[in-house]
């Protein structure tokens, strides 16, 4: 017959694992933040549907984010996802949609509404590049 140790023994054994888990989580968060700052990964990629949605009237109201790369005033390259929603379909055959940008994503002189091509090949790629797009989940 087995006999358990004292609750202090159990607490000590569990503490060892809790500390290991905390160290693993800390390392994970650090690596993810570094990766995210470089524009190489983010937490939303794995939460996307595997196949791009069809470009038709069912897409109206769909919130997306699109990746843009640009040069900052200090000369460094910046990469960022900007979000908006589909407000209309311009041409199903060419995947052209009418987009309305969220106000917080607009810079000085930016248009509130634009026409964008949502190419299936640019949907949630493993290595996002300029004009990559995906569902906005935040």
Could you explain how this protein is built, in words?
The protein has 138 residues and is α+β, with helices and mostly antiparallel strands. Helices cover 22% and strands 28% of the residues. It has a five-stranded antiparallel beta sheet, with no helix packed on it. A hairpin with a 4-residue loop joins strand 2 and strand 3. The longest helix has 31 residues. The mean pLDDT is 81.
Set out the fold topology.
Layout: H1 7-37, E1 63-71, E2 77-91, E3 96-101, E4 113-117, E5 133-135
Antiparallel strand pairs: 1-2, 1-5, 2-3, 3-4
User: If you compute it from the alpha carbons, what radius of gyration comes out, rounded to the nearest whole angstrom?
Assistant: 22 Å
Distance between the termini: 53 Å
On the 0 to 100 scale, the average pLDDT is 81
Order of strands, widest sheet: 4-3-2-1-5
Low-confidence stretches: none
Strand pairing plus helix content: what structural class?
alpha+beta
Count of DSSP E strands? 5
Strand residue content: 25-35%
Helix-residue proportion: 10-25%
The quaternary organization reads as single chain
The count of helical stretches stands at 1
| H/E element sequence | HEEEEE
Could you give a short account of the major beta sheet? 5 strands, antiparallel
What characteristic shape results from the CA principal axes? elongated
């Amino acid at each position: 017959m087995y006999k358990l140790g004292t609750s202090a023994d159990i607490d000590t054994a569990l503490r060892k694992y809790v500390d290991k888990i905390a160290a693993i989580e800390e390392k994970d968060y650090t690596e993810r933040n570094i990766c995210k700052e470089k524009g190489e990964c983010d937490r939303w990629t794995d939460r996307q549907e595997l196949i791009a949605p069809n470009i038709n009237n069912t897409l109206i109201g769909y919130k997306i984010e699109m990746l843009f790369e640009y040069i900052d005033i200090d000369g460094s390259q910046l990469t960022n996802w900007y979000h908006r929603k589909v407000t209309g379909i311009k041409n199903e055959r060419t995947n052209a949609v009418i987009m309305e940008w969220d106000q917080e994503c607009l810079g000085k002189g930016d248009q509130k509404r634009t026409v964008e091509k949502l190419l299936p090949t640019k949907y949630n790629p493993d290595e996002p590049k300029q004009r990559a797009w995906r569902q906005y989940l935040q």
